[in-house]
Amino acid sequence: MSKFPAAVLLSLAAAGASAGQLTATETRWLTAGSPVLAYAKELKLPIDIIVQPQAGPNDVPMAMGFADGRCKLVLSMRGNPNAESIFDGVPEAQQGVLIEAMTAHEVAHCWRYAQGSWHALPSGFVEVGQEQSDSPELLELSKQMRETRREEAYSDLAALAWTQRTHPGDYARVHRWLEGVRADQPSHGSHDTRAWLKLAGNGGQFAAGASLFDQVKVLWSEGLLQSE
């Protein structure tokens, strides 16, 4: 009998892959992330899992893409040193909860996309660019960077909310690890989510009893006020 839950197997089948074709690293990541994928299946999120036969030079191990109205969870681990280096200093026995949080991060991207909210601001917020440039291309690039940063912040908060919900004893450790991942990002760069991570230093700051994605709304909005 396969060790994979139905959520993983169905997603792999939809993407034309099978559990027997997976490497040990891919199997470990999917097994660790399977509770999140099962939750996504309960929500009927349209997720397919794509396994890259070879990672490109700039590929991250796990990413979410979108095509034909569906979310594509892309694993780029073969020949990708980042699949291991991202956990430098973390014993393998403690990596599972981090992989689970990373999976929750990517599923949150899919949630935003499926809800038609991708790059949308919360109600009451208005896009105000502070940049001044004679170059329309630079202004557009800056806008895209802001939009990406917002989505990354939303998903980082969702990853932490998931951890608080399912592994509250590991919250502080996951939060510290995520802060380390974001520590070297350029200020206000596309993945600079430090303003939001600072707000979420205590897992108790997420709204109790709310759905996972409702839990992040207040902190996400607070971070928008501080970072824009």
What does this structure look like?
The chain is mostly helical and 228 residues long. The protein is globular. It has nine helices and three strands. The longest helix has 31 residues, at 136-166. The protein has two domains: 6-93, no CATH class; 119-227, no CATH class. Strands 1-3-2 form a three-stranded mixed beta sheet. 34% of the residues are buried.
Q: Which key phrases capture this entry?
A:
228 residues, mainly alpha, 2 domains, three-stranded mixed β-sheet, 9 helices, 7% strand, globular
Q: How would you sum up this structure in a few lines?
A:
With 228 residues, the chain is mainly alpha-helical.
Give the C-alpha Rg.
18 Å
**Low-pLDDT stretches:** none
Domain tally: 2
SSE string, helices as H and strands as E = HHEEEHHHHHHH
Shape: globular
Major beta-sheet overview: 3 strands, mixed
* Arithmetic mean of pLDDT: 86
Number of helices: 9
Strand order in the sheet with the most strands: 1-3-2
Fraction in helix: 40-55%
How would you classify the helix and strand content by structural class?
mainly alpha
List the helices and strands and how they pair.
Elements: H1 6-14, H2 24-42, E1 47-51, E2 62-67, E3 70-75, H3 82-85, H4 96-114, H5 136-166, H6 171-182, H7 194-199, H8 212-215, H9 217-227
Parallel strand pairs: 1-3
Antiparallel strand pairs: 2-3
Helix pairs in contact: 2-4, 4-5, 5-6, 5-9
